[in-house]
Amino acid sequence: MTTATDIAERVTAWTSQQLAKRVPYSAENPFLSGPFAPVSEERTETELRVTGRIPQELNGLFARIGPNPVAVPNPALYHWFMGDGMVHGVRLQEGRALWYRNRWVGSNSVNAALGRPTLPGKRHGIFDVVNTNVVGHAGRIWALVEAGGLPIELDDCLESVRHGYFDSGAVRSFSAHPHLDPQTGDLHAICYDGLAQNRVSYVRIDASGKLARTVDIPVKHGPMIHDCAITASKVVVLDLPVTMSPKAFAAGSKLPYRWNPAHPARVGLLPRDGEASDVRWFDVEPCYVFHTANAFDREDGAVVVDVVVHSTMFDRSAQGPDSKRITFERWTLDPKVSAVRRDVISEEFQEFPRYDERRTTRENRYAYTVGAQFGPSGHVGPEPLIRHDLGTGAVVKHDYGPNQMPAEVVFVPRTADGAEDDGWLVSYVYDLRENRSDFVILNAADPAAEPEAIIHLPVRVPLGFHGNWIGDA
Fold first, then answer.
1. CB within 10 Å: which end of the chain, N or C, has fewer?
2. What is the pTM of this model?
3. Neighbours of 10 (CB within 10 A)
4. Strand ranges in 1-67 using DSSP code E only, listed in sequence order
5. How far is it between the farthest Cα atoms of the chain?
6. Do the beta carbons of residue 199 and residue 191 sit within 8 Å?
7. Measured distance CA(469)–CA(410) in Å, rounded
8. Distance, CA of 151 to CA of 153 (rounded, Å)
9. H/E run at residue 332
10. In Å, what is the CA distance from 72 to each residue of 25, 75, 265, 460?
């Protein structure tokens, strides 16, 4: 007897076959294999082996998120950016590793696939997968995504609680990369909506989780704006030539954004309390920026922002990032000229820039990246941590080992008012040979040295996107 489930499965298979004829097809997908391969179960591990000594001062949770699809009907059509979200966390307290947990983030699609109840809270649009960042704000933990989905609140054990726009009733797109002003406690973000291609929005969430300000900024072509930056007086808006592609959408692409040479590349400066008409735009050579490091105002009125720059993006692969060239650069936006000044800090392939975020809006000395090869074949092997001294130009690297691939590295200060390098650099590191991961703690003052502690996980943490240290109050 043919059931409704049988019919649905046949329709899904036929649809995948038809779409495969309409998009660039490859039988293999590097973002479903090796270090990117999804894990199949949620785990809670409380007996964790440790090499070295976990610093007593590290009390809190390190949480990181990334794509981990529950099911992939057609691997050739899977795009890395679109997979169901899974959050991973290690909880530390008084020199002990209390637990490791991984949990799927409770979107409608995940809960339906796993037979779980739908989360409470409003939705925005048809896209509710949340897989890109996890932050602490207003006393709670939030999983974030861009382009339309609302944040999802998580509890202290990483279980999904509700959809919501923090503590406001708003129903609108947010960002995967808000920036916290440590002076005010406000979150600042530039947000885009896949269903509204003629505008992006500046959004400010105050320290209590309330929506404090929105400014709609006119744009063309529906640009993908993954990140922004803030100074004490301005917000940096990156309007670059990766835009919504009607052709890719019609062809069935899971992520219908493509390199668009017809879209002028520009960078805007919005005064924090200004309106859209107050944005000052600066021309820049065509390129793409996923991630900024810090930004600050100079005394002469210029704004400086450090960015990882891709020469192009999404012009070859329909499965994930593809970069012909990556540089780490310092951009200067001087009000006396109309174009961005670009100074190359490093020509080494690298991504995921971080810094001591107590320095947000003020000049910082150090920036941290990890080596990355983003091409049609994905990552190709072990990569180092790279510390850039932005004052002297000196570079220090940490080699995790011949089979080790680190994810994004996060700086955790020892104290609230300590020196910029007085703390630790923490990251999940995947072991290619053993097919599992470690949580590695480095001394930020001497990052090339052996780790202070390695927490050996009996599981694999797939290479994903972003995370943060969420310290105890």
1. N
2. 0.92
3. 11
4. 43-45, 49-52, 60-67
5. 77
6. no
7. 7
8. 7
9. strand 326-333
10. 15, 6, 35, 19
d(CA 348, CA 395): 11
Tokens 């180092």 correspond to what residue? 384
Say which residue the tokens 């502690």 belong to: 453
| Amino acid letter, residue 158 | L
Please count the residues of the chain. 473
The pLDDT value recorded for residue 244 is: 95
Residue written as token pair 């053993």: 434
User: How deeply is 302 buried, as exposed, middle or buried, from its count of CB atoms within 10 A (0-12, 13-18, 19+)?
Assistant: middle
The tokens for 185 are 């406690």
The partner residues of 180 in beta bridges, in order of sequence, read 187
Q: Considering the domain 4-471 in this protein, what is its CATH number?
A: 2.130.10.10
pLDDT number for residue 9? 42
The two tokens of residue 305 are 């922002």
Residues 467, 141 contacting (CB under 8 angstroms): no
Tokens of 177: 């990369």
CA distance 225 to 238: 6
How far from chain centre, in Å, is Cα 288? 15
**Which residues does the chain have with pLDDT short of 70?**
1-27, 373-381
Per-residue b or e along 96-117, where b marks 16 or more CB atoms closer than 10 Å to that residue's CB: ebebbbbbbbbbeebbeeeeee
DSSP E strand boundaries for 118-255: 133-137, 140-144, 152-154, 160-163, 179-180, 187-193, 196-205, 211-218, 229-230, 234-239, 242-244
Token pair recorded at residue 75 = 């691997």
In the chain, domain spans: 4-471
10 Å CB burial of residue 7 (0-12, 13-18, 19+) is exposed
Interacting residues of 48 by C-beta distance below 8 A, sequence separation 6+: 97, 99, 100, 455, 456, 457, 458
- Confidence at residue 17, expressed as pLDDT on a 0 to 100 scale: 46
Short-list 76, 82, 84, 73, CA closest to 11: 73
Q: Determine the pLDDT at residue 227.
A: 98
DSSP-derived letter for residue 204 is E
The Cα 47–Cα 295 span in angstroms is 41
Asked whether the beta carbons of 205 and 180 are under 8 A apart, the reply is no
Residues 128 and 149: beta-carbon distance below 8 Å: yes
SS3 6: helix
